[in-house]
Specification:
The complex is a heterodimer of chains A (166) and B (256). Chain A has 166 residues and is mainly beta. Helices cover 7% and strands 35% of the residues of chain A. In chain A, the strands form three sheets. Chain A has a five-stranded mixed sheet, with no helix packed on it. Chain A has a four-stranded antiparallel sheet with strand order 2-11-6-9, with no helix packed on it. In chain A, strands 3-4 form a two-stranded antiparallel ribbon. The N and C termini of chain A lie far apart (40 Å). With 256 residues, chain B is mainly β. Chain B contains two helices and 15 strands. In chain B, the strands form two sheets. In chain B, strands 1, 2, 3, 5, 6, 11, 12, 13 and 15 form a nine-stranded antiparallel sheet that branches. A six-stranded antiparallel sheet of chain B has the order 4-14-7-8-9-10, with no helix packed on it. The chains are: A mainly beta (166), B mainly beta (256).
């Protein structure tokens, strides 16, 4: 169901794929709260229309979600301290999608410490903290339509210091 | 200490809010904010107010540039999560909407309380949600709970008789007909409840939800109509619970 994922590094040589596509979405992987789609530093396009309304409430049960959602997992901590990177969501021009960055086990009542929705077609950027796995939700909390559609998602972060040490 | 916060710039707000917990560790709750782009809503404790609660400032001097430009995820609330669900819980809080403006139509609404379950049954994860709907002359509370047994959710509208109201709710989780939700408006738990959600006397079959795993109080899921027309302040204080956990915010995690 993730065949729509157009990973920006697809078509590259194998060595480059391994290096640059590490953590990028894999076709056929689940993308729900119980089975979030693992991603790393990557840039790709996708559509919430291929998801389900898996999280009718988000962020401690406070935010009503009115459209299909897609859940990603950024595993393995990007940095031991501070804000390690960003995740950027841009929906199609008439589509209003929100970006949630949450911590802990994925659930409707999980703590989401970044929630961004700047309106239809607008870029939404949220920080990614280091040190803990986080999950990212692309959802539709507005009353308007369309309720789903395409978007691009970009994850940027600096690898943990321990990984780059000699 | 927090008086005059409304005139601070965002950066100053973050600094003050971030340092409050360390300097006044015994003071609870600490101020809290949720960011939505450049927009934010502030939870605060009024100066010299020792009651357990929060005040949401929606005036244009605080929510910048304007509250009407805030998005649907702009929210401010306190919450907690339990390690295990409980099958009986009571929550009380006082709503002061006397300074809330523009909330005179039911389409101008927001969620004010939620009690979450650890599992989602029939695509519904909440044991109780309370929305505040605009009304004339006073707001209306909308309580929603699942009936269970494959039945649709149960919902009741409770018009308030004043701008200030003490709200108490009780969630009882049980199988068959053992579940129920009771609520009191301006009355104590020991008194006759103002109303009951129990599938019209049949009882709720809500055991499949396991129990309350977490709860949140504040303002969230505002409708676009409310954001366009709402303003002023809303105070929620005198927060109490039968649970042994306190409502908190994200400062204890160092995430704000």
């Amino acid at each position: 169901m993730n065949a729509l994922h157009d990973v920006s590094c697809s078509g590259a040589r194998m060595a480059v794929i391994i290096a640059a596509c590490l953590g990028a979405p894999m076709i056929g992987t689940a993308q729900t709260c119980s089975a979030p789609l693992p991603i790393g530093a990557s840039s790709f396009t996708a559509s919430t229309c291929d998801g389900t309304l898996d999280m009718p409430f988000i962020s401690s049960g406070t935010t009503v979600n009115r459209g299909p959602d897609v859940v990603y997992k950024l595993d393995g901590a990007l940095s031991s301290v501070g804000w390690a990177g960003t995740v950027t969501l841009q929906p199609e021009p008439d589509l209003d999608l929100a970006l949630f960055v949450c911590i802990g086990k994925c659930s409707n009542y999980a703590t989401c410490f970044q929630m961004v929705d700047n309106g239809p077609g607008a870029v939404n950027t949220a920080g990614i903290p280091g040190g803990n796995p986080v999950f990212v939700v692309v959802a539709h909390p507005t009353e308007g339509s369309p309720t789903c559609g395409g978007y691009s998602l970009q994850v940027d972060y600096t690898p943990p210091l321990s990984a780059s040490a000699p | 200490m927090l008086n005059g916060m409304s005139s601070f710039a965002t950066g100053a707000l973050l600094m003050v809010a971030g340092s409050a917990g360390a300097q006044d560790a015994e003071r609870w709750p600490v101020p809290f904010e949720r960011l939505s782009g450049t927009l934010y809503t502030v939870l605060n404790v009024a100066p010299d107010d020792s009651s357990y609660g929060l005040t949401l400032f929606l005036s244009q001097t605080v929510v910048q540039p304007f509250f009407s430009e805030a998005g649907p995820v702009a929210s401010a609330f306190m919450y907690y999560v339990r390690p295990q669900p409980i099958t009986f819980a009571r929550y009380g809080f006082r709503i002061n909407a006397s300074e809330l403006t523009g909330a005179n139509d039911s389409s101008r609404a927001f969620q004010i309380f939620t009690a979450s379950a650890p599992v989602m049954v029939a695509s519904w994860p909440q044991l109780l949600t309370v929305n505040l709907l605009g009304g004339t002359p006073y707001p209306i509370l909308q309580l929603t709970t699942p009936r269970g047994g494959g039945k649709p959710i149960e919902q009741v509208l409770v018009p308030l008789s004043a701008a200030i109201a003490m709200v108490r709710v009780e969630i009882d989780v049980g199988a068959g007909t053992a579940g129920r939700v009771r609520y009191w408006i301006d009355a104590d738990y020991s008194e006759q409840p103002t109303g009951v959600l129990d599938d019209e006397g049949n009882g709720l079959d809500n055991a499949a939800w396991s129990g309350v795993i977490g709860a949140a109080i504040g303002m969230s899921s505002t409708t676009s109509q409310f954001r366009a027309m709402g303003g002023g302040t809303l105070t929620i204080d005198q927060i109490g619970s039968s649970d042994d956990l306190l409502f908190g915010d994200n400062f204890e995690f160092g995430l704000q």
